[in-house]
């Protein structure tokens, strides 16, 4: 009688069989994210500007703050790759170095708004009742106001500085994030794991931050990424209006404010490159946000 020989397994010894527990990637969402062309393109754009913000002063070939009145408003050439501005400063060097302030202020403002909005949204969503009625209506009232106008009024009252810009933008983003988190908490607060924590006698702060928060992180991550794009635009807008980053910074919004009138005389390079830098950074952040949203929706 012939014995049946089992087929040889192609799985290496000690490795889990396909489909068995432990065979799945440890970080499936991260792998999906790294496979997203949208995310990769956005990450490369943002990474370039981060490198410029960190190491820009070391690889520009001309001093971004040195004035040369004899070479003012020089078109792009071999020496001045992006031309010079009305004070004779090298535009290329200023665009590269100008990434530093905006990539310091915008992420810090986004972090502040996300942290405060998350805490507020957890409280409002978890307690509901009169807490939601009072704080929720206050959030709606704040969101009814144009955020740029609110920021301008606040900065006009307290004065413009990097710290106050971070504080004001972060504060204006807080109610927006709180509304997103509140909606996510509403969908979670009646689930079994929350009821089990309440039956165990856990305190409300523990339930909100240890039980509910990890389950509402995906929308918070997406919201924070989207807010970062808005923060970059807000910083540039406030600087353009004279209420944001102050001279002698090479900030892009400030550069537009100082040079936009020169376009009528044909000095387009004083505006186009700074505006392109703002647009590329915002597009890069938005591509990252789209990539993250696409992965989290799968």
Automatic annotation (TrEMBL):
Coiled coil: none annotated. Keywords: Cell membrane, Membrane, Transmembrane, Transmembrane helix, Transport. It is a multi-pass membrane protein. One of its GO terms (cellular component) is plasma membrane. Residues 9-19 have a biased composition (Pro residues). Its main location: membrane. One of its GO terms (biological process) is transmembrane transport. The chain crosses the membrane at residues 39-60, 102-127, 147-169, 228-246, 266-289. Residues 99-289 form the ABC transmembrane type-1 domain. Residues 1-22 are annotated as: Disordered. It is found in: Cell membrane. Belongs to the binding-protein-dependent transport system permease family. This is Peptide/nickel transport system permease protein. It comes from Paraburkholderia tuberum.
